[in-house]
Design goal:
The protein has about 260 residues and is of the alpha+beta class. The chain contains four helices and 13 strands.
């Protein structure tokens, strides 16, 4: 003889009030928690994947922009483009280091590398262009104390004494001058000086590669100029069994014009 399952919901015949058995309440709570977790997963994981896709896309396009700048400066000095982006970066880095070490390193020069010798028309003080183009900068503020001196000097043109203010860097020379007569006053002032500092930046070989598929960006040169092209067609990687991390081609840069900025 089979036993009848007890009802999970009881309705009071007098008041009409619905009462749930504890086992049913527990089951409903479990179902609610499961649904909340599913909802959280469905919203959170795709959002994180979209953010990751955007992160890698920005890295890839930043690398392409750097390669274009490298090719642009190399072309200015060599009058041609270099289809090997790693070699172009090595040459540009050598030029940067040479101009920093020697202020006379400009004009017709030769760069010697293990890959060979390269004749270039080097831009004067190229290291400054290199740093402002590639390096990240930050502002450094310092408090500078200035000391000014009020002195009397004989003016030979007017045949009279002049009263002038001289800063601390010149006071010794002024006092040695035969026209100097007396030191009248001293004034000390302070000011905040802002200086732009560039963090060291290295043109490393990893910049020549797509960050997802690790294939080298294509350098295409023709009669119309130069194009930096992403080799990736599409990318897909399964995540958490049912979700996918995917991306498509990052685009190209043709003669400085970026495809992803076109409307």
């Amino acid at each position: 003889m089979s036993k009848k399952r007890k009802a999970q919901v009881v309705v009071d015949s007098e008041t009409g009030k619905v009462e749930y058995k504890p086992s049913l309440v527990k089951a409903l709570n479990i179902v609610a928690v499961i649904l909340a977790l599913i909802l959280l997963i469905v919203i959170y994981i795709p959002k994180k994947l979209w953010e990751e896709e955007e992160y890698y896309r920005n890295i890839g396009r930043k690398r392409m922009s750097i390669l274009y700048e490298v090719e642009k400066y190399y072309h200015q000095m060599a009058n041609r483009y270099e289809t090997d982006p790693i070699l172009a970066m090595k040459i540009l880095t050598a030029v940067r280091d040479s101009t920093l070490a020697d202020s006379d390193f400009y004009g017709k020069q030769e760069i010697k590398l293990p890959e060979g010798k390269f004749s270039l028309d080097v831009v004067r003080n190229f290291y400054q262009i290199f740093d402002t183009t590639f390096a990240l900068s930050y502002e450094k503020k310092d408090t500078v104390v200035d000391t000014s001196y009020k002195v009397i000097k004989w003016n030979t043109e007017l045949f009279a004494f002049d009263t002038i203010w001289v800063n601390s860097s010149r006071i010794n020379d002024v006092m040695k001058d035969s026209l100097f007569r007396a030191l009248l006053d001293t004034e000390i002032t302070s000011r905040v000086a802002t200086q732009k500092i560039f963090r060291p930046f290295k043109l490393d070989s990893h910049l020549a590669y797509n960050p997802l598929i690790n294939k080298q960006f294509q350098i295409l040169v023709d009669s119309e100029g130069i194009t930096i092209k992403d080799p990736m067609k599409k990318y897909k990687e399964m995540r958490y069994l049912v979700f996918a991390f995917k991306d498509t081609n990052y685009g190209y840069i043709k003669n400085g014009e970026k495809s992803w900025e076109k409307r």
